[in-house]
Amino acid sequence: QQLVQLEALSRAGLLNGLDVPIEPDQDMTSITQSDTDMTDVSQIRKQRLKSFLERPLFDSTTRRAAGVSGVLVGQVSWYQENQRGIGRPLDSKTAGDELTANGLENALTSALEKAKVYAHDSEYERDVLFPETVDELLETTEEMPTKWDIDKRELRFCYVLGHAHGRRSMPVAFDLREDGAQADTAEEQSAD
């Protein structure tokens, strides 16, 4: 919801301070129009992340890295809260409006470590939780946040957008998987 509100404000020209619009390109492919297996949550997450990062805002490497960092912190926080029952997840210690490069570096280091440990503890089939996000982060930047050349406002803004996406990535993926399964069932019934 926050992203939709920010996109609306951007389209109306009411957001100042950023040199590019945050709304998606007109050419972006909707997940339902893609070849994504709608029964595979990890494929849904991967496609949604790709779609999220196609915004002109993320054409800058450092903005993209800040956004992807927010996605990972949001995903790990969701996992801590919903799968491990942790009362104070990682993001409760990482306020976006007070974020600094040092704070992001600490949160990102913690998120990467926790994604590895949780994958191992849960006998997850990969070496890390949310591999699509970790892979994107590794492809986007080779430096830690304290080395990025990014304005503090942009760092916070991109992180918060990413965090909102990350926090919602699993619930939305589960909803889309359920919708895909219902559509498959309806197609099977109509074929009979």
Notes on the protein architecture:
- The protein is mainly alpha-helical.
- The chain is 60% helix and 0% strand.
- It is built from six helices and no strands.
- The longest helix is centred in the last third of the chain and has 40 residues.
- It is globular, with a radius of gyration of 17 Å.
- The protein starts with a helix and ends with a helix.
- About 3% of the residues have low confidence.
Reconstruct the topology from this structure.
Elements: H1 2-11, H2 41-52, H3 61-83, H4 101-121, H5 131-140, H6 152-191
Question: Which keywords apply here?
Answer:
about 0% strand, about 60% helix, single chain, mainly alpha, about 190 residues
Radius of gyration: 17 Å
Structural class: mainly alpha
Percentage beta strand: under 5%
The profile of the biggest β sheet is: none
- How many beta-strand runs? 0
pLDDT averaged over residues: 84
Q: Helical element count?
A: 6
- SSE string: HHHHHH
Distance between the termini: 39 Å
State the helicity in percent bands. 55-70%
The stretches of 5 or more residues where confidence is low (pLDDT under 50) are: 25-29
Shape: globular
Quick overview of this protein structure:
This protein has helices spanning 2-11, 41-52, 61-83, 101-121, 131-140, 152-191. It has 192 residues and is an all-alpha fold.
